[in-house]
Write a structure and sequence with these properties.
The protein is an alpha+beta fold. The chain folds into two domains: about 200 residues, Cytochrome Bc1 Complex, Chain A, domain 1; about 180 residues, 2-Layer Sandwich (Cytochrome Bc1 Complex, Chain A, domain 1), CATH 3.30.830.10. The chain is about 40% helix and about 20% strand. It contains 15 helices and eleven strands. Strand 9 and strand 10 form a beta hairpin. Helix 1 packs across helix 4 and helix 3 runs parallel beside helix 8. It is globular and about 65 Å long.
């Protein structure tokens, strides 16, 4: 049971406090309700660009890292299609340093042409290195645009096109910041060797005077139910043929999400999984194969991807994958296999809860989803799933008309 206290400042900032006196450390986690799905389709990559800009100096603090390091702290951030998260960990006695730093960059970044130019170059180089010049780097650019026709999940967090970041100007940046990075669209979680009353005082002192901002009302285009299978074939100078196939699945809070999580674990959860045993070890069609889902808030994708053994045709590999999928739909999963996956899920949740930083991040995530108490209810949702549920949901998501297939052929050059 993860215990926490919650309060809301007058400017709309939601604050959650998780007290843990067993550690000398404190974690300050700020999650903003903005991700790549909230970008203008003609100006993508901005949420990720901001992850970099937020470390480039704020209105009163030119260097974020140096004072945090002097206080014995470390920090990082990440951006997804759904959200942006900034977090730092430092000795609990230096907690106020983190409040000072985080509140100042929420108040306002130090917008400058120089900072924008530097971070724009960094992001553009990242785009080129990982998505344009890297073998298989464009796989998910292609797959997302194949699987999604309407929803903004059709582009990746890095952005849809390199030029969108290259052409970002200071006015675009300011508008995006003051639309999304406001107290009313943020969640502050403080965890570790802290006290709720102490956090209340610091939150009021450092965040209370920041203007609320306009609440962001999300109205995204919804993806229509896919009725016909889609397929794309392409060639690239890569060492091995690659096979990728996806199916649409339920949103994060729907029952199907939990079923899909267990289905992907059965099919692709490591060396004992069905796909690995059948297609790598026994039939030797793939050199590696994985099955997973994106964990996205809006309806996401179940994915199977793997590299083919040289000499194996794409058609034979696809047939073998389809055969394993057919088994999921036609034959109920044995109870011991289901229990094994439930046990693994329980251990994963328990392991995540061991770290105070993970607990802080999870609390922020569940608060973003609408109810932080979900952190203590997740395991029960998995335990309730039956073999009948998994078979029924397999039939729902793995229907042929819901599939998107990418044959990524190696040219051998």
């Amino acid at each position: 049971m993860i215990t926490f206290n919650r309060f809301v400042l007058d400017n709309g900032l939601r604050v959650l406090v998780h007290e843990d006196i067993t550690t000398p450390m404190a974690v300050v986690n700020i999650m903003y309700d903005v991700g790549a799905r909230d970008e203008n389709p003609d100006k993508t990559g901005f949420a990720h660009l901001f992850e970099h800009l937020m470390f480039g100096g704020s209105v009163h603090i030119p260097d974020y890292d140096e004072p945090l390091q002097r206080a014995g702290g470390e920090n990082n951030a990440y951006t997804t299609n759904d959200l942006t998260n900034y977090y730092c960990q430092l000795p609990a006695q230096n907690l106020e340093t983190a409040f000072w730093l985080e509140s100042d960059r929420m108040l306002s970044l130090a917008f400058s042409e120089k900072s924008l130019s530097v971070q724009r170059k960094v992001v553009c180089e990242e785009f080129k290195e990982h998505y344009l010049n890297k073998p298989y780097g464009d796989v998910w650019h292609k797959m997302r645009s194949l699987a999604y026709q309407s929803h903004p999940y059709r582009w990746m967090t890095i952005g849809k096109e390199l030029r969108h970041v290259e052409e970002a100007n200071i006015d675009d940046v300011k508008a995006f910041f003051f639309k999304h990075y406001r107290p009313v669209n943020a969640i502050l979680v403080v965890a570790g060797n802290v006290r709720t009353e102490q956090v209340k005082q610091l939150a009021e002192k450092w965040f209370g005077s920041i203007p609320m901002g306009e609440p962001y009302r999300r109205a995204l285009p919804q993806e229509p139910v896919q009725q016909e299978a889609r397929k794309l074939e392409m060639e690239a100078a890569v060492p091995l043929d690659a096979f990728v196939k996806t199916w649409h699945m339920d949103a994060r809070l729907k029952p199907g999400y939990y079923a899909a999580d267990m289905i992907t674990e059965i099919l692709g959860g490591g060396g004992s999984s069905r796909l690995y045993q059948a297609l790598v070890k026994e039939q030797q069609l793939f050199s590696n194969i994985d099955c997973y889902h994106f964990g996205s808030i809006d309806p996401g994708l179940v994915a199977i991807e793997g590299k083919l053994v040289k000499g194996v045709t794409m058609e034979n590999a696809a047939k073998a994958v389809d055969a394993e999928i057919e088994k999921m739909m036609q034959v109920q999963i044995p109870e011991p296999e289901l229990q094994k996956v439930k046990n693994k899920t329980e251990s994963v949740i328990a392991f995540e809860d061991m770290s105070v930083m993970s607990r802080a991040n999870s609390l922020a995530m569940y608060e973003l989803l609408g109810d932080a108490t979900l952190i203590n209810k997740e395991l029960a949702r998995y335990q309730e799933i039956t073999t009948e549920d998994l078979q029924a949901y397999s039939r729902e998501i793995f229907r042929a008309g819901n599939s998107n297939t990418l044959f990524y052929h190696a040219t051998g050059k």
